[in-house]
Amino acid sequence: MLNAVVLIAMSMLGIALMLSAWRLFRGPDATDRILALDTLYINAAAVIVLYGVRIGRPDFFEAALLIALLGFVSTMALAKFLLRGDIIE
Amino acid sequence: MIAALLDLLTALLLFFGAVFALIGSIGLVRMPDIYTRLHGPTKVTTLGVGSILLGSMLFFSVRDGLSLHELLVSVFLFLTAPVSAHLLARAALHRRCRSEAPVPEDE
């Protein structure tokens, strides 16, 4: 049962990834694109965690942790660039 | 008995998280302006990915002893989601993005 549920959850997250990619291409403003990128990487981290559950290996969470850390830093940098026109002042 | 129950709980948590991630992304596509669009992805982060990580934690704890390191990811995401949403809202205000909300009438 768990295997089927993981497959269903992974396909739902795949649809979620496609929806946020659509927003990433569509825009209309740069802030929308950054928000879509933020959603995209969080969904990707969730897919990686689910894949770890599916094949039963606990070490996939480190990849998710790395994605979460780097994604937060990049979102911060992009938003800061939009706010100030510069990242490190 | 207990094992089957824990299995069911894991499946429920994973399914719940995926449903919330899907709903948040639909909100990201369907909402009319940037200020309402900020609403969806924060739910994806806290409820969606939070319960998926909880489910994965339960799965590995049942299988090979207590494992709590997924908690690290969820605590980090819970701390950073409001910060990035706040910064994006400020960036949108700074760039003078239009809100689709109706203007209140004069008294």
Give a summary of the structure in a few sentences.
Chain A is mostly helical and 89 residues long.
Describe what you observe in this structure.
The complex is a heterodimer of chains A (89) and B (107). The N and C termini of chain A lie far apart (54 Å). Chain A has 89 residues and is mainly α. Chain A has helices at residues 2-26, 30-55, 61-84. In chain A, α2 (30-55) packs antiparallel against α3 (61-84). Chain A has one domain: Helix Hairpins. In chain B, α3 packs antiparallel against α4 (70-94). The mean pLDDT of chain B is 87.
Number of alpha- plus pi-helical segments of chain B: 4
What structural category characterises the helix and strand content of chain B?
mainly alpha
Largest sheet of chain B: none
Mean pLDDT across residues of chain A: 88
What is the count of structural domains of chain A?
Answer: 1
Question: What form of chain A results from the Cα inertia axes?
Answer: flat
Q: What is the H/E string of chain B? A: HHHH
Reading the helices and strands of chain A in chain order gives HHH
Helix content of chain A: over 70%
Summary keywords:
heterodimer; A: 89 residues; mainly alpha; Helix Hairpins; B: 107 residues; 4 helices
Walk me through the topology.
The complex is a heterodimer of chains A (89) and B (107).
Chain A lengths: L1 H25 L3 H26 L5 H24 L5
Helix pairs in contact in A: 1-2, 2-3
Chain B lengths: L1 H29 L3 H4 L1 H26 L5 H25 L13
Helix pairs in contact in B: 1-3, 3-4
